[in-house]
UniProtKB/TrEMBL annotation:
Protein name: Centrosomal protein 20
Family affiliation: Belongs to the CEP43 family.
Recorded coiled-coil stretches: none
InterPro entries found in the cross-reference section: FOP_dimerisation-dom_N, LisH
Cellular-component GO terms for this entry: centriolar satellite; ciliary basal body; motile cilium; nucleoplasm
């Protein structure tokens, strides 16, 4: 008969292999945070920039199925529960998307643009994007190519 210690080790190993142990730990952290969060203390107002940054992060977290991290971000930051519309973000950030880029979070495109904006400093983490174009206006008209799984 297995000892309690052996049973715990097998259970822990099984949960880790299935990927559920990390989710359980994240859920516990989120619940502890919610229990300890002082609702009586008013949150500072959410600036327009922070709203956009938080939304980019939330879109990334949810795309990668980090739902508990996303829920903690939303609760802690005071971000609206309902996500902002992607088209709103695209318009606010002056991003020009192609049809393929709509399947990945905007943050991927922003990182891709930063990595490939200066071809001399291209990082191998992301693929080269042949259609990458930067407009003459520094803050408008950024076009980027999406990351594809076969390129990664």
């Amino acid at each position: 008969m297995a000892t309690i210690t052996e049973l715990k080790a097998v259970l822990t190993d099984t949960l880790e292999k299935r990927g559920t142990l990390g989710q359980i730990k994240a859920r516990i952290r989120a619940e502890v945070f919610n229990a300890l969060d002082d609702q009586s203390e008013p949150r500072p107002s959410l600036s327009h920039e922070n709203l956009l940054i938080n939304e980019l992060i939330r879109e990334y977290l949810e795309f990668n199925k980090y739902k508990y991290a996303s829920s903690v971000l939303t609760a802690e930051s005071g971000q609206p529960e309902v996500p902002l519309d992607r088209e709103f973000l695209v318009n606010e950030l002056n991003i020009v998307e192609d049809p393929n880029s709509r399947s990945v979070p905007l943050l991927y495109g922003i990182i891709n643009q930063l990595l490939h904006g200066n071809e001399e400093k291209v990082c191998n983490t992301f693929p080269r994007a042949p259609s990458l174009q930067v407009s003459n206006q520094p803050t408008k008209g950024v076009k980027w190519a999406p990351l594809r799984s076969q390129d990664a």
